[in-house]
Amino acid sequence: MGVISHDVRDPSTPDRNLALELVRVTEAAALAAARWVGRGDKESADQAAVDAMRLLLDTVPMDGVVVIGEGEKDEAPMLYNGEAIGDGSPPEVDIAVDPLEGTRLCARGMPSALSVIALAERGTMFDPGPCVYMEKIAGGPEIADLLSLEEPLADVIRKVAERKGTTPEGVTVIMLDRERHAEKVKEIREVGARIRFITDGDVSAALFAVTGSGAVDLLWGIGGTPEGVISAAAIKCLGGRILGRLWPRDDRERDAAIAAGYDLDEILDQDRLVAGDNVFFAATGVTDGELLQGVRYLSGGKASTESLIMRSRSGTVRTVRATHDRAKLREITGGRYG
Q1: Would you list the DSSP string of 284-307?
Q2: What is the pTM of this model?
Q3: Is residue 169 helix, strand or coil?
Q4: Which phi and psi angles does 47 have, rounded to 5°?
Q5: Whole-angstrom Cα distance, residue 310 to residue 290?
Q6: Measured CA distances, 81 to 86, 97, 101, 268, 316 (Å)
Q7: What percent of the chain has pLDDT over 90?
Q8: Are strands 114-121 and 92-101 parallel, antiparallel or unpaired?
Q9: Residue 58: Cβ-neighbour burial (10 angstroms; 0-12, 13-18, 19+)
Protein backbone atom coordinates (compact mmCIF):
# COMPACT_ATOMS: atom_id res chain seq x y z
CA MET A 1 0.00 0.00 0.00
CA GLY A 2 1.45 3.35 -1.02
CA VAL A 3 2.09 6.23 1.34
CA ILE A 4 -0.05 9.30 0.76
CA SER A 5 1.84 12.54 1.15
CA HIS A 6 0.28 15.95 1.56
CA ASP A 7 2.03 18.90 -0.10
CA VAL A 8 1.68 21.88 2.23
CA ARG A 9 3.92 24.24 0.27
CA ASP A 10 2.58 27.65 -0.60
CA PRO A 11 1.37 27.33 -4.19
CA SER A 12 2.22 30.98 -4.83
CA THR A 13 5.93 30.26 -4.30
CA PRO A 14 7.86 29.02 -7.35
CA ASP A 15 9.43 25.73 -6.27
CA ARG A 16 9.97 23.66 -9.41
CA ASN A 17 12.84 24.73 -11.61
CA LEU A 18 10.99 27.00 -13.98
CA ALA A 19 14.25 27.81 -15.76
CA LEU A 20 14.03 24.37 -17.36
CA GLU A 21 10.72 25.45 -18.88
CA LEU A 22 11.82 28.99 -19.68
CA VAL A 23 14.70 27.75 -21.83
CA ARG A 24 12.16 26.60 -24.42
CA VAL A 25 11.05 30.21 -24.59
CA THR A 26 14.51 31.65 -25.21
CA GLU A 27 15.31 28.87 -27.68
CA ALA A 28 12.20 29.77 -29.69
CA ALA A 29 13.08 33.47 -29.70
CA ALA A 30 16.68 32.76 -30.70
CA LEU A 31 15.63 30.48 -33.55
CA ALA A 32 13.19 33.10 -34.82
CA ALA A 33 15.69 35.96 -34.59
CA ALA A 34 18.45 33.91 -36.21
CA ARG A 35 16.61 34.04 -39.53
CA TRP A 36 17.47 37.75 -39.59
CA VAL A 37 21.17 37.55 -38.64
CA GLY A 38 23.23 39.75 -40.93
CA ARG A 39 20.26 41.00 -42.94
CA GLY A 40 20.41 44.57 -41.68
CA ASP A 41 16.84 44.71 -40.34
CA LYS A 42 16.92 44.94 -36.56
CA GLU A 43 13.20 45.72 -36.25
CA SER A 44 12.17 42.53 -38.05
CA ALA A 45 14.67 40.50 -36.03
CA ASP A 46 13.30 41.88 -32.77
CA GLN A 47 9.68 41.36 -33.81
CA ALA A 48 10.38 37.75 -34.79
CA ALA A 49 11.94 37.11 -31.38
CA VAL A 50 9.04 38.79 -29.57
CA ASP A 51 6.43 36.79 -31.50
CA ALA A 52 8.15 33.45 -30.84
CA MET A 53 8.74 34.22 -27.16
CA ARG A 54 5.12 35.26 -26.69
CA LEU A 55 3.87 32.05 -28.32
CA LEU A 56 5.83 29.84 -25.92
CA LEU A 57 5.28 31.92 -22.79
CA ASP A 58 1.57 31.15 -22.82
CA THR A 59 2.41 27.46 -22.35
CA VAL A 60 4.50 27.96 -19.18
CA PRO A 61 2.61 27.05 -15.97
CA MET A 62 2.77 30.36 -14.12
CA ASP A 63 0.79 33.51 -13.39
CA GLY A 64 3.27 36.06 -14.67
CA VAL A 65 3.35 39.84 -15.06
CA VAL A 66 5.90 41.54 -17.29
CA VAL A 67 7.81 44.09 -15.22
CA ILE A 68 10.63 44.60 -17.72
CA GLY A 69 9.36 44.27 -21.27
CA GLU A 70 9.40 45.83 -24.69
CA GLY A 71 7.86 49.11 -23.50
CA GLU A 72 4.45 50.45 -22.68
CA LYS A 73 1.29 48.85 -24.07
CA ASP A 74 0.66 51.51 -26.72
CA GLU A 75 4.21 51.13 -28.03
CA ALA A 76 4.61 47.34 -27.77
CA PRO A 77 1.68 45.16 -28.86
CA MET A 78 3.19 42.13 -27.13
CA LEU A 79 5.37 41.62 -24.08
CA TYR A 80 4.62 45.13 -22.85
CA ASN A 81 5.16 46.25 -19.26
CA GLY A 82 2.23 45.06 -17.16
CA GLU A 83 1.13 42.31 -19.55
CA ALA A 84 -0.11 39.06 -18.00
CA ILE A 85 1.65 35.98 -19.37
CA GLY A 86 1.73 32.25 -18.64
CA ASP A 87 -1.21 29.88 -18.38
CA GLY A 88 -2.55 31.61 -15.25
CA SER A 89 -1.76 28.84 -12.79
CA PRO A 90 0.47 29.36 -9.71
CA PRO A 91 3.08 30.56 -8.95
CA GLU A 92 2.62 34.33 -9.17
CA VAL A 93 5.81 35.81 -10.60
CA ASP A 94 7.47 38.89 -12.05
CA ILE A 95 9.00 38.52 -15.50
CA ALA A 96 11.81 40.43 -17.20
CA VAL A 97 12.32 39.77 -20.90
CA ASP A 98 14.66 40.85 -23.64
CA PRO A 99 13.62 38.71 -26.61
CA LEU A 100 16.63 39.95 -28.56
CA GLU A 101 19.38 41.62 -26.55
CA GLY A 102 21.56 43.22 -29.18
CA THR A 103 19.17 43.89 -32.06
CA ARG A 104 21.92 45.73 -33.93
CA LEU A 105 24.36 42.89 -33.23
CA CYS A 106 21.91 40.47 -34.82
CA ALA A 107 21.17 42.70 -37.80
CA ARG A 108 24.86 43.19 -38.51
CA GLY A 109 25.86 39.58 -37.82
CA MET A 110 28.05 40.62 -34.90
CA PRO A 111 28.86 38.53 -31.80
CA SER A 112 26.94 38.15 -28.52
CA ALA A 113 23.28 38.69 -29.46
CA LEU A 114 21.12 36.80 -26.97
CA SER A 115 17.53 35.98 -26.13
CA VAL A 116 17.02 36.45 -22.38
CA ILE A 117 14.32 35.96 -19.75
CA ALA A 118 14.36 36.20 -15.94
CA LEU A 119 11.71 35.36 -13.37
CA ALA A 120 11.27 36.00 -9.64
CA GLU A 121 8.51 36.04 -7.04
CA ARG A 122 5.70 38.54 -7.57
CA GLY A 123 6.52 42.05 -6.45
CA THR A 124 10.28 41.55 -6.17
CA MET A 125 11.62 43.07 -9.42
CA PHE A 126 12.60 46.74 -9.46
CA ASP A 127 10.42 48.85 -11.73
CA PRO A 128 12.63 51.65 -13.14
CA GLY A 129 9.65 53.86 -13.96
CA PRO A 130 10.65 56.73 -16.25
CA CYS A 131 14.40 56.10 -16.00
CA VAL A 132 15.72 54.43 -19.14
CA TYR A 133 19.39 54.43 -18.09
CA MET A 134 21.43 53.63 -15.03
CA GLU A 135 25.11 53.78 -14.18
CA LYS A 136 26.31 50.23 -13.50
CA ILE A 137 29.34 48.41 -12.18
CA ALA A 138 29.60 44.62 -11.90
CA GLY A 139 32.21 42.02 -11.06
CA GLY A 140 32.67 38.48 -9.85
CA PRO A 141 32.52 37.09 -6.29
CA GLU A 142 36.24 37.52 -5.68
CA ILE A 143 36.02 41.33 -6.01
CA ALA A 144 32.37 41.91 -5.07
CA ASP A 145 33.23 43.74 -1.85
CA LEU A 146 35.47 46.20 -3.72
CA LEU A 147 32.84 47.54 -6.09
CA SER A 148 31.57 51.07 -5.59
CA LEU A 149 29.77 53.82 -7.49
CA GLU A 150 30.64 56.40 -4.83
CA GLU A 151 34.43 56.06 -4.94
CA PRO A 152 36.43 57.19 -7.98
CA LEU A 153 36.55 54.42 -10.58
CA ALA A 154 40.35 54.68 -10.62
CA ASP A 155 40.44 53.79 -6.91
CA VAL A 156 38.20 50.77 -7.50
CA ILE A 157 40.52 49.62 -10.29
CA ARG A 158 43.56 49.97 -8.01
CA LYS A 159 41.83 47.84 -5.33
CA VAL A 160 40.87 45.21 -7.88
CA ALA A 161 44.46 45.10 -9.13
CA GLU A 162 45.78 44.67 -5.59
CA ARG A 163 43.28 41.87 -4.92
CA LYS A 164 44.44 40.15 -8.11
CA GLY A 165 48.09 40.57 -7.17
CA THR A 166 48.83 42.75 -10.17
CA THR A 167 48.96 46.39 -11.23
CA PRO A 168 46.14 48.42 -12.81
CA GLU A 169 47.65 47.49 -16.19
CA GLY A 170 46.42 43.96 -15.49
CA VAL A 171 42.79 45.05 -15.08
CA THR A 172 40.34 45.10 -18.00
CA VAL A 173 37.04 47.01 -17.95
CA ILE A 174 34.30 46.11 -20.42
CA MET A 175 31.98 48.93 -21.40
CA LEU A 176 29.65 50.27 -24.07
CA ASP A 177 31.34 52.50 -26.63
CA ARG A 178 29.38 55.70 -26.03
CA GLU A 179 30.22 59.43 -26.05
CA ARG A 180 28.73 59.79 -22.56
CA HIS A 181 31.59 57.64 -21.23
CA ALA A 182 34.40 59.90 -22.45
CA GLU A 183 35.34 61.22 -18.99
CA LYS A 184 35.50 57.73 -17.45
CA VAL A 185 37.46 56.39 -20.43
CA LYS A 186 40.08 59.05 -19.73
CA GLU A 187 40.11 58.14 -16.02
CA ILE A 188 40.49 54.42 -16.75
CA ARG A 189 43.34 54.98 -19.17
CA GLU A 190 45.12 57.42 -16.86
CA VAL A 191 45.21 54.81 -14.09
CA GLY A 192 46.66 52.36 -16.61
CA ALA A 193 43.81 49.87 -16.99
CA ARG A 194 42.61 48.47 -20.30
CA ILE A 195 39.20 48.89 -21.90
CA ARG A 196 37.27 46.41 -23.97
CA PHE A 197 34.59 48.32 -25.87
CA ILE A 198 31.33 46.75 -27.00
CA THR A 199 28.77 48.28 -29.34
CA ASP A 200 25.72 46.76 -27.61
CA GLY A 201 24.67 43.99 -25.26
CA ASP A 202 25.52 44.85 -21.68
CA VAL A 203 23.63 41.86 -20.21
CA SER A 204 26.08 39.62 -22.02
CA ALA A 205 28.92 41.88 -20.85
CA ALA A 206 27.77 41.73 -17.22
CA LEU A 207 27.65 37.94 -17.37
CA PHE A 208 31.11 37.92 -18.92
CA ALA A 209 32.44 40.12 -16.10
CA VAL A 210 31.12 37.94 -13.26
CA THR A 211 31.89 34.47 -14.62
CA GLY A 212 35.57 34.67 -13.74
CA SER A 213 36.84 33.98 -17.25
CA GLY A 214 39.82 36.25 -16.66
CA ALA A 215 39.31 38.08 -19.95
CA VAL A 216 37.58 41.02 -18.24
CA ASP A 217 37.44 42.06 -14.60
CA LEU A 218 34.75 44.72 -14.41
CA LEU A 219 31.72 45.98 -16.23
CA TRP A 220 31.20 49.73 -15.94
CA GLY A 221 28.95 52.02 -17.91
CA ILE A 222 25.72 53.94 -18.31
CA GLY A 223 23.35 51.54 -20.01
CA GLY A 224 19.77 50.40 -20.00
CA THR A 225 17.99 50.12 -16.65
CA PRO A 226 15.98 47.08 -17.86
CA GLU A 227 19.25 45.36 -18.73
CA GLY A 228 20.47 46.16 -15.21
CA VAL A 229 17.51 44.33 -13.68
CA ILE A 230 17.99 41.33 -15.97
CA SER A 231 21.73 41.27 -15.19
CA ALA A 232 20.95 41.39 -11.46
CA ALA A 233 18.75 38.31 -11.81
CA ALA A 234 21.58 36.43 -13.49
CA ILE A 235 24.13 37.60 -10.92
CA LYS A 236 21.92 36.39 -8.07
CA CYS A 237 22.25 32.94 -9.63
CA LEU A 238 25.95 33.12 -10.57
CA GLY A 239 27.34 35.05 -7.63
CA GLY A 240 29.18 38.34 -7.81
CA ARG A 241 27.74 41.81 -7.48
CA ILE A 242 26.13 44.56 -9.51
CA LEU A 243 25.54 48.11 -8.35
CA GLY A 244 23.35 50.59 -10.18
CA ARG A 245 22.29 54.22 -9.85
CA LEU A 246 19.52 55.75 -11.92
CA TRP A 247 20.79 58.16 -14.58
CA PRO A 248 18.09 60.47 -15.98
CA ARG A 249 18.81 61.59 -19.53
CA ASP A 250 17.44 65.11 -19.11
CA ASP A 251 15.66 67.42 -16.68
CA ARG A 252 12.24 66.20 -17.77
CA GLU A 253 13.11 62.60 -16.97
CA ARG A 254 14.76 63.66 -13.70
CA ASP A 255 11.66 65.60 -12.63
CA ALA A 256 9.39 62.67 -13.56
CA ALA A 257 11.50 60.25 -11.51
CA ILE A 258 11.55 62.52 -8.46
CA ALA A 259 7.80 63.10 -8.75
CA ALA A 260 7.30 59.32 -8.83
CA GLY A 261 9.28 58.96 -5.59
CA TYR A 262 12.60 57.64 -6.91
CA ASP A 263 15.77 58.48 -4.98
CA LEU A 264 18.29 59.28 -7.70
CA ASP A 265 21.20 58.99 -5.26
CA GLU A 266 20.28 55.50 -4.08
CA ILE A 267 22.78 52.75 -4.87
CA LEU A 268 20.84 49.71 -6.04
CA ASP A 269 22.52 46.33 -5.57
CA GLN A 270 21.32 43.03 -6.99
CA ASP A 271 19.10 42.40 -3.94
CA ARG A 272 17.37 45.73 -4.49
CA LEU A 273 17.03 45.25 -8.23
CA VAL A 274 15.67 41.72 -7.75
CA ALA A 275 14.59 41.18 -4.17
CA GLY A 276 13.35 37.61 -4.62
CA ASP A 277 15.16 34.61 -3.15
CA ASN A 278 14.06 32.23 -5.88
CA VAL A 279 15.23 33.69 -9.17
CA PHE A 280 15.33 31.91 -12.51
CA PHE A 281 17.28 32.94 -15.59
CA ALA A 282 17.58 31.59 -19.12
CA ALA A 283 19.53 32.87 -22.13
CA THR A 284 20.05 31.40 -25.59
CA GLY A 285 22.70 32.55 -28.04
CA VAL A 286 21.55 34.08 -31.32
CA THR A 287 25.00 34.89 -32.66
CA ASP A 288 28.27 33.39 -31.45
CA GLY A 289 29.76 35.06 -28.38
CA GLU A 290 32.19 34.58 -25.51
CA LEU A 291 29.52 32.92 -23.35
CA LEU A 292 27.27 31.07 -25.76
CA GLN A 293 27.36 29.68 -29.26
CA GLY A 294 24.78 31.15 -31.58
CA VAL A 295 22.17 29.33 -33.65
CA ARG A 296 23.79 26.99 -36.16
CA TYR A 297 22.05 25.58 -39.21
CA LEU A 298 22.85 21.91 -39.73
CA SER A 299 22.31 19.42 -42.51
CA GLY A 300 18.97 17.67 -42.79
CA GLY A 301 16.94 20.78 -41.98
CA LYS A 302 18.06 20.94 -38.36
CA ALA A 303 19.41 23.76 -36.18
CA SER A 304 21.35 23.79 -32.93
CA THR A 305 21.15 26.15 -29.97
CA GLU A 306 23.20 26.67 -26.84
CA SER A 307 21.62 28.06 -23.68
CA LEU A 308 22.53 29.02 -20.14
CA ILE A 309 19.92 28.31 -17.46
CA MET A 310 20.23 29.12 -13.78
CA ARG A 311 18.38 29.13 -10.48
CA SER A 312 19.43 31.21 -7.48
CA ARG A 313 17.99 29.00 -4.72
CA SER A 314 20.04 25.97 -5.71
CA GLY A 315 22.94 27.82 -7.34
CA THR A 316 22.71 25.40 -10.24
CA VAL A 317 24.03 26.64 -13.57
CA ARG A 318 23.42 24.51 -16.64
CA THR A 319 24.57 24.79 -20.23
CA VAL A 320 22.04 23.17 -22.54
CA ARG A 321 22.83 22.26 -26.14
CA ALA A 322 19.83 21.30 -28.23
CA THR A 323 19.15 20.16 -31.79
CA HIS A 324 15.87 21.24 -33.37
CA ASP A 325 14.02 19.82 -36.37
CA ARG A 326 13.03 23.01 -38.17
CA ALA A 327 10.31 21.44 -40.32
CA LYS A 328 8.56 19.95 -37.31
CA LEU A 329 8.82 23.21 -35.39
CA ARG A 330 7.26 25.12 -38.28
CA GLU A 331 4.47 22.56 -38.45
CA ILE A 332 3.50 22.79 -34.79
CA THR A 333 3.93 26.58 -34.53
CA GLY A 334 2.24 27.60 -37.76
CA GLY A 335 5.55 28.61 -39.27
CA ARG A 336 6.28 31.25 -36.63
CA TYR A 337 9.79 30.00 -36.04
CA GLY A 338 12.07 27.13 -36.93
Answers
A1: EESS--SS----EEEGGGEEEEEE
A2: 0.91
A3: helix
A4: -65, -40
A5: 18
A6: 14, 10, 17, 21, 29
A7: 82
A8: antiparallel
A9: exposed
